[in-house]
Amino acid sequence: MLLSSLMAPSFLLLSHVLILFVLVHASEDLRGNMREVKVKAGEEVTLECQGPTHAPIEVLKWIRPDLMSDRGLEGYVFFYRDERSHESYHHQLFVGRVELRDPEMKDGDVSLILRNVSTNDTGRYEGHVSVSNTGRRKRAQSELWCVIKLTVEDPGPTHEETWFRQIAQVLGLEENHLLYVLVSVAVVVILLTGLCCAVIKKYKNHSQNYGPSMQESEEMAMKAQDPCSCDSRSHC
User: According to its UniProt record, where is this protein located (predicted)?
Assistant: First the structure.
C-alpha cells in the first residue's frame, strides 16, 4: 500500500516530463522545417513543399493564418479537393496569382507558385495535406507538412530614379521641383519647335506663290547673258 502511494506521484511526474519532452521536440521539429524565403516585389516565388508519397493526396490547403476568418474559408491561399482547385475558396489577395508547380502532384510535390508578389504577401504560409484513407473515415485528418516565412522586399529605386535624384541634388532642388522645371522646359521646347515649323512652312508657301519659278529664273538669266535674245532681231 505504501509502495503504491509512493509510485503514483512518481508515475504522474514522469508522465508530465514525457509530455513536455514530446511538445518541446515537436516545437523544435516544426522550427527546423520552417523555411525563410526572401524575394523582391514584382517577382515570382515558389513555395517549396514535399508532401506524402505513400498515398494519393485528396486535400491540399495552403493558408496564411493571419488572413483566416472565423469560417476558415476566406484565408486560403490555395485550396485543392476532389482532383481540382477551388478558386472560390481563395482569399481575394491571391485569386489569379497562384497555381501548383505540378498540377498532378507527382511524387508528393505540392509546391505552390505565387506570381507578381508585393509587400502585402509577406507572412507565414502553411501547407496542409490529407491523403486518401482506406479505413472507415473518408479522408485522413489534414496534417501540417511545411511552413514557409515569406518576406517580400521593396526592389528599391530604378536606375532612372537614381539618376533623377542625383540631378536634383546637384541643382539643389527637391525632386518635385525639378520635375516641374523639366516639364516646363519640355513645353517651351515643343512650342518653339512648332513655331519654327510654322514660320518655315509659311515662308515656303509665300515663295511659291509670289516668287518666279525656277524655269522662269533660268530663262531670265539666259536672256541677260545673250545679247541676241531680244525681241527685235534687227538691232542685233
Answer: Cell membrane
Q: How far is residue 171's CA from residue 145's CA, in Å, rounded to a whole number?
A: 57
Q: Quick one: 33-153 is in which CATH superfamily?
A: Immunoglobulins (2.60.40.10)
What are the tens digits of pLDDT across the range 147-203?
999 999 988 776 666 766 667 666 666 656 656 667 777 888 898 888 888 888 777
